[in-house]
Design the sequence.
């Protein structure tokens, strides 16, 4: 069973490939020959995930999925949320986004946050959605160098280190994306698509 993963983010591709293991085979956009910048203009994670999957499905008519992730911080009324990628502005870096979050969280006592991932799957022309969520808290400074995005400032509940201080395997065992990917995998199993 082959599914195209509609992402240009190499970190995500590696994470999801590691989580899916040999259960289904993931084709990257590069392998498919898709070099477009995929639009992401929705107001919700679900809309964005579907928009990305539909872009690839419309162009290549293949079974595919896409994910969209947001970091929701209680003290910031759920921001950056669906705007996590460009929180500090167009063409900003992961570092710029983290700096903005740390500045806005300066002095905040409620540091609760969660990562949410929505996966949209288009299989034989039908849409399906899967979700994963993990609670945690925002650190007062960056810690660790692994992973990507907001990993250095997010410490999952029940752990004493940030995602960026964990090994890939540790993060992939508990992360929002891992939970959503496991749901996707379970769905594919129940469809008897996978052997
Ligand atoms: P996307 O729109 O799904 O690519 O994700 C939006 C933004 O959320 C990304 O640009 C990253 O900054 C952040 N993000 C997504 N997944 C993760 C993660 O697993 N760890 C940390 N940050 C993430």
Sequence:
């Amino acid at each position: 069973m082959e599914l195209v993963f509609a992402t240009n983010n190499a970190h995500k591709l590696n994470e999801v490939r590691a989580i899916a293991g040999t259960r289904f085979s993931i084709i990257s956009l590069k392998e498919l020959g898709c070099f477009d910048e995929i639009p992401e203009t929705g107001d919700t994670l679900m809309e964005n995930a579907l928009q990305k999957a539909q872009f690839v499905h419309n162009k290549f008519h293949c079974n595919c999925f896409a994910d969209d992730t947001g970091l929701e911080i209680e003290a910031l009324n759920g921001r950056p949320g669906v705007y996590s990628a460009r929180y500090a502005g167009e063409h900003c870096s992961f570092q710029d986004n983290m700096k903005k979050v740390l500045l806005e969280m300066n002095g905040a006592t409620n540091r609760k946050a969660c990562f949410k991932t929505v996966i949209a799957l288009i299989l034989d022309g039908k849409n399906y959605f899967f979700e994963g969520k993990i609670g945690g808290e925002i650190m007062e400074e960056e810690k660790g160098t692994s992973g990507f995005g907001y990993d250095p400032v997010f410490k999952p509940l029940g752990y004493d280190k940030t995602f960026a201080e964990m090994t890939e395997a540790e993060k992939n065992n508990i992360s929002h994306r891992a939970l959503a990917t496991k749901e996707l995998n379970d769905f594919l199993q129940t469809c008897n698509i996978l052997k």
About this structure: Helices lie at 10-20, 29-32, 45-60, 94-104, 168-174, 176-190. The radius of gyration is 17 Å. The chain is about 35% helix and 25% strand.
